[in-house]
Amino acid sequence: MRGKMTAITHHIPDALLAAYAAGSLPQPYALVVASHISLCLDCRATFDAHQAAGGAVLDTAERAHLSNGVKARVLEQLDAPVAPEPVFQRSGVFPGPVMEVLKGKPPRWRTVGGGVRQSILSATGEGSVRLLFIPPGQAVPDHSHNGLELTLVLQGSFSDETGRFGVGDMEVADEHLEHTPVADVGAPCICLAATDAPLRFRTLVPRLLQPLFRI
Ligand SMILES: [Zn+2]
């Protein structure tokens, strides 16, 4: 089932999805997660299951046991699980949640060198979230690596040491991941990227990543 309805292969880790469902994700991350959910039936089903559970925190064993059955039932219950229109809400390359932030207007791009452009959607004490435009063959600019970094591909693709990321794929990285994402040949890569405010979420990040990487 995973990845069958779309070409998405890199999904939202369950710990992040649970934090989002519980309303405890900082806004920059929440925007990336919401955008992925708007593009991905699979994560939408998991998200709905979390919401149905009242955002209750299940332990890993319980979650693993439940996930397949719950997801199947939730998918059955979706009003229009097959029709792409209500799920794939987007305008051009921008998912619905991004369009809301843009208020329906095109992003204001600013050149940051090497043909790379960015459009900062928000930058607060909770971190920042921006759109990045990366020409084919160019490296994704290094953005701080002070903590958790979420990158969602909206157009084109990029590759790094961990794999290839196409439209709808989300990469989760932290300061322990040494990686150099480079936009693939073809269409320019457009990404939505959220990063921490420096030093801000030192305590949150290990807690979120613990179930993922079993630190
Ligand atoms: Zn997904």
Q: In CATH terms, what is the fold-level topology of the largest domain?
A: Jelly Rolls
Query: What portion of the residues fall into strands of 2 or more residues?
Result: 15-25%
The end-to-end distance, rounded to whole angstroms, is: 28 Å
Radius of gyration: 17 Å
List keywords for this structure.
single chain, 215 residues, alpha+beta, Arc Repressor Mutant, subunit A, Jelly Rolls, 2 domains, 6-stranded antiparallel β-sheet, 3-stranded antiparallel β-sheet, 6 helices, 32% helix, disordered C terminus, binds zinc ion
Kindly describe this structure.
The protein is of the alpha+beta class. It folds into 2 domains: about 15-90, Orthogonal Bundle (Arc Repressor Mutant, subunit A), CATH 1.10.10; about 100-215, Jelly Rolls (Sandwich), CATH 2.60.120. Helix content is about 30%, strand content about 25%. It has helices at about 15-20, 25-40, 40-50, 60-75, 95-100, 205-215; strands at about 90, 95, 110-115, 115-125, 125-135, 150-155, 160, 165, 170-175, 180-185, 190-195. The strands form 3 sheets. A 6-stranded antiparallel sheet has the order 3-4-5-11-6-9, with helices on one face. The protein has a 3-stranded antiparallel sheet with strand order 8-7-10, with no helix packed on it. Strands 1-2 form a two-stranded antiparallel ribbon. Helix 1 packs across helix 3, helix 2 (about 25-40) crosses helix 3 and helix 3 (about 40-50) packs across helix 4. The longest helix is centred in the first third of the chain and has 18 residues, at about 60-75. The radius of gyration is 17 Å and the shape is globular. The protein starts with 13 loop residues before the first helix and ends with a helix. The relative contact order is 0.17. The model is unreliable at about 1-5, about 55-65, about 75-90, about 200-205 and about 210-215 (pLDDT under 50). Zinc ion binds next to helix 3.
